[in-house]
Fold this protein.
Amino acid sequence: MEVITLNNGVEMPQLGFGVWQVPDGEAEKAVTTALETGYRSIDTAKLYYNEEGVGRAIRASGLPREELFVTTKLWNDEHEYDKALRAFDESMERLGLDVLDLYLIHWPVPSRGKYVDAWKALEKLYADGRVRAIGVSNFTIKTLQHLFEETGVVPAVNQIELHPQFPQKDLRDFHAEHGIATEAWSPLGQGQGLLDLPELAEIGAAHGKSPAQVVLRWHLQLGNVVIPKSVTPERIAENIDVFDFRLDDAEMAAIDALDNGRRLGPDPATFAWMG
Ligand code: NAD
């Protein structure tokens, strides 16, 4: 498995397994399949309500803890310093872990104006050795700049909506300039529309690969961390089978050209849902 080195030296698998919208009862099975298939990084969140299922799969796998990379996220109504520290403990209890690999602020919710408090709590958890790396999700250039001005530690990761139809070039460039790893959520564009595009089928045919594999390869060559989600064993296997081919410059450019500027998810500048 390819890894990327975060700005504090911690290594993170470049491809992981996302579990949004997987109910707790199904998460154990899906994560078990993923771990058996070779995935070593799992992306969950408090709001996915499946941290317990993820934890059960991790324990049942028998894999050494140091081989796994587990991410979870702080929810929007817990940005206050003390609440954030408690929320972390509760997530860790559900996951059944002592140390987390990556903890993210799920959304900045700029209208609440509390994400700096939340970040200070994450810095404390990091300083105490409870988490190996801390980062953010859905932060914009503006919220990242504000965070830099107010605090000391540059986030290791910003997990953002990113796929060929919404490639976020400016934000990726900003991350590169500041040593922040770009992690793509909905890397397959949630499967709808994107994977049916004939351009992807054509590139895939040239390599004996599916459109999903072509899209994941595009991400990897850009340097993104990806966390595709599936509960179907064949697709779980397909999505990790992307390390034995390479897209050339013309193919990369053809995929870049699929940009239509449309988000699938909410706009982080205004999103303020509390769940
Ligand atoms: P995704 O882009 O990974 O797409 C998943 C969907 O694509 C599946 O439900 C399935 O319908 C289809 N699919 C998967 N593999 C396929 C294949 N090989 N061939 C054809 N179709 C396939 O979408 P996602 O689940 O939204 O995003 C991935 C992960 O990102 C989530 O599970 C979650 O962990 C994370 N995420 C984070 C945020 C955030 O705010 N931080 C938001 C959304 C998602």
The chain has a mean pLDDT of 97. Residues 224 and 241 are 16 Å apart (CA to CA). The longest strand covers residues 131-137.
